[in-house]
Structure formats: C-alpha cells, structure tokens
Amino acid sequence: MSTEYVLRTQNLTKTYGRHNAVDNVSMNVRKGDIYGLIGKNGAGKTTFLKMVAGLANPTQGTIELFGKKDTRTGRTKTDWFRKSGVELQRKRIGCLVEEPGYYPGMTALDNLEIVRRNLGITEKDITKKMLEFVKLSDAGKKKVRNFSMGMKQRLGIAVSLIRNPDFLVLDEPINGLDPSGIKEIRDLMITLNRERQITILISSHILGELSKIATRYGIIRDGALVEEFDAEALEDRCKRCQKVVVDDTARAAKILEERFGIRNYDVPDEHVIRIFERYDEAERINSAFVMGGIALRESMLVGQDLEGYFMDLLGSDIRTGIGL
Ligand code: ATP
Questions:
Q1: Which of 15, 19, 40, 46 to mutate for ligand 1's pocket (most ligand atoms within 8 Å of CB)?
Q2: Fewer Cβ atoms within 10 Å of its own Cβ: the N or the C terminal residue of the chain?
Q3: Lowest mean pLDDT: which of 137-141, 219-223, 317-321?
Q4: What span, in angstroms and rounded, lies between the C-alpha atoms of 285 and 270?
Q5: Within a 10 A sphere around the Cβ of 119, how many other Cβ atoms?
Q6: Distance (Å, rounded) from C-alpha 199 to C-alpha 202?
Q7: 104 in ligand 1 pocket by Cβ < 6 Å?
Q8: 44 C-beta closer than 6 A to ligand 1
C-alpha cells in the first residue's frame, strides 16, 4: 500500500535579507500523523508553518499539499499562489499560526459568527458546535478580552476548525498555558486525530508535551530539518539495554537463550550484544558468559531517556517539559 502524504516539502527555503530563516527543508507528513515540529525559539518553526499555511511565500523550494505540487516561487504572495493547485488544497487546512484578530469586546460565539460569515459558510449551527467541541459553550456572555490564555487558544482552535479541515497546522498552541490548559489542548488534539481523522502538524519547544501525542517528529535547528523520525523509532533510540562486548556473540547468544530464556536482544555488530530485558540480572549473565569460556571485554547498562536524546539533538538550553 502506498503512503498517502498530506504535506511534502522539498528544499523549502525562506530568506530574510541574507539569513535563511528556513533552510532547504524537505518534510513529509503522512495522512493520519500528529507531526511534532520541534525546535528552539527562533529555529524557524513559525516561518515554515506560515509558508505551509499560505501566509508567507517561499524564496525557494516546493510545497505539495494532498498530492498537489507547486514549484513556483515569486516576489509577492499573488505571484506565487495565483491559480496554483496548492492554493485550492489550502482550503482543506485549518491553521492557528498567528493569533487570530479577535474582537475583544465580543463573545466567543459572536467572534466565531463573524469568521463563519467571512468564509461564506452557510451552516449556521457550526459555530455552536465548534464552541461545544472546544468546551467554550460555558463562556456564555463573557467577552473575549476577559478570556484566559487557554480559552483564547481554544477559541483559536475553534476558528481553525470551522471549515471542517482535513489538516490542522498549529504553531505552539500550548505556549503559556498551565498544566490543566495543556492537558485540555492535548485531549482535543487526540480527539481530532482519532475521531475526525484530522492530520495535525504542531510546533512546540516543549518536547515532553509533544511526546505524549506525536506519531512523528521533525527536529528543526537554525532553519534546517536535522532529523525526521517516527514515534516508534524514538522509543527504539531511547531504549535501555545491557550492552556487552564479547569475543563470540553466537556462543553468548546461546547462553542468553538457553540459560536465561532471554529472546529480547540484538547483535548490532560482530562483538556486541544488546539485551533489552532483565537488567537486574546483569551480573549473573556476565558470570555465565565467563563460566562459559567467553571473553567478556565490556558490560554496561546504557540507554537514554527522551529528554537526554532531545538535549543531544538540540542543545541543552531547550525546554523539555518532560513529565508535565
Ligand atoms: P519562535 O518560537 O520564537 O517564534 P520560531 O522557531 O518560530 O521561533 P521563526 O519565528 O520562524 O522561529 O524565526 C526564524 C528566524 O527568522 C529568526 O531568526 C527570526 O528573527 C527570523 N525572522 C522571522 N520573521 C522575520 C521577518 N519577517 N523578517 C526578518 N526576519 C525574520
């Protein structure tokens, strides 16, 4: 079965003056993904998402949305987007990239109503449905200027959902929220993804939060996408193991299986075995190797947690928020 992509970019670049805010980014977001774009402040996340959402025009590179590609670049937005297949596909995107310009003296419902009319959406009920969905129905007559940060974010998500999108692009939606607000947004993302089959691209510099929901990750540093990988691959990379270096891995493997019943191990190279279970029996295993005539050159418990892994990738000043 071929993979269906919602977004693919190739060498996407945005230059401001001489500085590449986004530098040759080739990203692949598959249908059904919750894709976490991770990077420090100033890494280029917003600029990248703006290009995807059609709010900024690329200097170079291509964007493919739902299989429709546009290779044109141009000096103005109109040059770039005119009659483009991509632009039509953008109607299928809901985005929260820049703070929507709310009317602070109006209620959430009135604000949504204005968006509905501006977009020419005829289904009148949609505004109430969206407010219910983001749990803002209770806000009633409260004016948006008196909303908490979390309420404003949820209203922003309601705005982004009003066109019934297939793809949601959200820039740091949990920025500045307290733990309960963060959880609400997280639960909302999961519902949208699982129940409404919406593909989500979400940026954050709070890694721990994304690690609870993301199915795929992209790491952006100084404008460049330095890594892209699935959640399973991340788990694999962070796996703890007992690593032994021996002269004869075949004999060592036999001992593991026959004496200890251990099957969860691999042999990444000629002299190395990684054992992914029974860490508390490491000493007994080592003795059994030695008794079995195996030259044991090294034995250690290795492994990295998610936090350590990201810190290595991004530098120590990143905020991990793991455990939030
Ligand atoms: P943050 O989380 O702080 O918003 P970010 O990862 O989203 O960070 P961007 O806002 O995309 O990063 O900024 C990337 C780089 O591009 C920064 O160095 C920023 O100063 C620069 N930049 C962004 N927009 C412009 C602009 N309109 N003109 C000039 N430089 C810009």
A1: 46
A2: N
A3: 317-321
A4: 19
A5: 13
A6: 10
A7: no
A8: yes
Q: Tell me: the pLDDT tens digits for 126-181?
A: 999 989 888 898 888 899 999 988 888 889 999 999 988 999 999 998 877 888 88
Task: Work out the pLDDT band at 319, boundaries 50, 70, 90.
Answer: very low
pLDDT at 262 over 60: yes
Rounded Cα distance, 156 and 111, in Å = 10
Nearest residue by C-alpha to atom 14 in ligand 1: 44
Distances in Å between the Cα of 175 and the Cα atoms of 32, 167, 171, 178, 184 are 24, 21, 9, 9, 13
Protein residue closest via CA to atom 30 of ligand 1: 16
pTM: 0.77
- The letter for the amino acid at 51 is M
* Nearest atom within ligand 1 for CA of residue 39: 6
Architecture of domain 240-302 in this structure:
2-Layer Sandwich (3.30)
pLDDT range class, residue 318, cuts 50, 70, 90: very low
Which residue's CA is minimally distant from atom 29 of ligand 1?
A: 16
Q: Is the CB of 20 under 6 A from ligand 1?
A: no
Residue with tokens 């929220």: 177
| Ligand 1 pocket test target in 38, 45, 202 with most atoms within 8 Å of CB | 45
Distances from the Cα of 66 to the Cαs of 29, 88, 195, in angstroms? Answer: 10, 10, 20
Mean pLDDT confidence for 58-66: 92
CB 186 within 8 A of CB 157: no
Residue 227 CA to ligand 1 center (angstroms) comes to: 20
Taking alpha carbons only, the member of 63, 44, 61, 68 closest to residue 53 is 63
The reply to whether ligand 1 has any atom less than 6 angstroms from the CB of 21 is yes
Cβ 210 vs Cβ 35: under 8 Å: no
Look at residue 280 and give its three-state secondary structure.
helix
Q: CA–CA separation, 315 vs 34, rounded Å? A: 24
